[in-house]
Write a structure and sequence with these properties.
This is DUF1523 domain-containing protein. This protein has about 210 residues and is of the alpha+beta class. It folds into two domains: about 150 residues, OB fold (Dihydrolipoamide Acetyltransferase, E2P); about 70 residues. The protein is built from three helices and five strands. β2 and β3 form a beta hairpin. It starts with a helix and ends with a helix.
């Protein structure tokens, strides 16, 4: 049972951390090499795309903006540029067309690079054709600039504070309401057990006395 318990705990926290890693905003420093628009057919990876109106994925296919980049270490990264609208994650992004125009303006080559910080969420999984979704783009001084993820830090602090507040209230409710009830039930069982023990001893003595007579 200990293996089952610890397996369940590990799986639970793996799911929570994976969800946070996918959802929380991250920042990449890169050079935009190209931008394009492509017709995408949605398949098994439908859940990783947003809908045409930013709500949820619609069946079939539609055109999606993409941003091609090359990072400071030479690695290539491709981002999709979709509105999140009122859906999840709640970034309320409605300006994918404007962001695509900004990305076009920031295009550069290796001889005269223009480095930008791309805020995004999501993962890049080539074998599933999954792309992170770009949220904003801004110019930075170079590929080695340090960007503090303040948005992610604030969200994590708020989540920890909420979890702590809920835990404190649950423990307080258990201490004030549930534990006294359990103690009363335990005392009732103990009292009933003691009464039964006394009755059993009296019955045993009665039968014992009757046998000797």
């Amino acid at each position: 049972m200990q293996y089952v318990k610890w397996t369940a705990i590990v799986v639970f926290w793996a799911v929570v951390l994976g969800f946070l890693h996918y959802t929380l905003p991250q920042n990449d420093v890169a050079r935009i090499t190209d931008t394009y628009e492509k017709r995408v057919d949605f398949g098994a990876n439908r859940m990783f795309w947003t809908g045409a109106d930013g709500s949820d994925t619609t069946p079939g296919n539609r055109d999606v903006f993409f941003i091609q980049t090359r990072q400071g270490d030479g690695d290539v990264m491709v981002y999709r540029n979709e509105d999140t609208g009122w859906g999840w994650p709640p970034y309320f992004k409605f300006d994918s067309s404007n962001l695509q125009a900004i990305a076009v303006d920031f295009r550069s080559n290796s001889e005269s690079p223009q480095w930008v910080a791309i805020k995004h969420y999501g993962w890049r999984l080539e074998f599933l054709s999954i792309f992170p979704n770009a949220l904003s783009i801004r110019a930075v001084e170079g590929p080695d600039v340090t960007i503090v993820p303040w948005t992610a830090i604030v969200i994590l602090v708020l989540l920890v504070a909420i979890a702590w507040a809920i835990t404190v209230r649950v423990l307080r409710f258990r201490r004030n309401r549930i534990d006294p009830v359990l103690e009363d039930v335990g005392e009732s069982f103990d009292s009933a057990g003691n009464r039964w023990s006394r009755r059993r001893r009296r019955i045993a003595r009665w039968f014992g006395g009757g046998g000797k007579g």
